[in-house]
Amino acid sequence: HTSLPVIVQSDSAEALSSLASKGLEHSAYGHLVHEIKELMCNREFYSQKIHHSQNRVADRLANYSRTECTTAVWLTS
């Protein structure tokens, strides 16, 4: 494990707000927000709101995953 801070960049102000809030998340994705918060509980958290055009790679990967029926795995040495 590491003690380095978690830096999350997103073009979604709502997602960043959900991660930064201390309260419970009651949206359809509340269980995911809760799990992410548990994983970050012992680390500093910084959020950065970026413009949608700066998030192009993540957007394309998300769209690709919705249309492809394959699983891709990146392996590092």
TrEMBL record:
It comes from the Eukaryota. InterPro entries: RNaseH-like_sf, RNaseH_domain. Pfam families: RVT_3. Signal peptide: none annotated. GO terms for molecular function: nucleic acid binding; RNA-DNA hybrid ribonuclease activity. SUPFAM superfamilies: Ribonuclease H-like. Residues 5-64 form the RNase H type-1 domain. This is RNase H type-1 domain-containing protein.
